[in-house]
Amino acid sequence: xxxxxxxxxxxxxxxxxxxxxxxxxxxxxxxxxxxxxxxxxxxxxxxxxxxxxxxxxxxxxxxxxxxxxxxxxxxxxxxxxxxxxxxxxxxxxxxxxxxxxxxxxxxxxxxxxxxxxxxxxxxxxxxxxxxxxxxxxxxxxxxxxxxxxxxxxxxxxxxxxxxxxxxxxxxxxxxxxxxxxxxxxxxxxxxxxxxx
Length: 196
Prior knowledge:
single chain, 196 residues, mainly alpha, 8 helices, 58% helix, elongated
């Protein structure tokens, strides 16, 4: 670890590391952190305890078989299957535990607001943007049906208006014919003035 520390110092002094951000991080680590090889050992044992049985961890770490040190790592471990099941339940990991079956993605990003949605969502839970083509088709069909309803309603209103105008025109014509001064007008002259 001391050799690694000195090598990093030489690399910083010679300018081999050109990235300013990385250089600042390394300088900070050199000033503040202890270079302890036990951290590497602890991380390796923690990683190994996820898939190795207790006796194998003890043998790899060179503990005696009667040692209780292994129980510190083993008792807090969670198996890979359990981790995958928890992540799949929360929609973070890929669904499909078998290696033979092709897993499907568990999440889907919204192209509008970049929110991560579960794979089952057709629409974004934040902005309601359609995430799949079926959802877009549903929106188009709903809009088309609304448009057809409005068109039908407009046609019906126009038809009712025309019928009402015809009734009013007939009433006016009957009133005109009953009036002796207007009775001499021809009905064709009045129909020409009718509003279309």
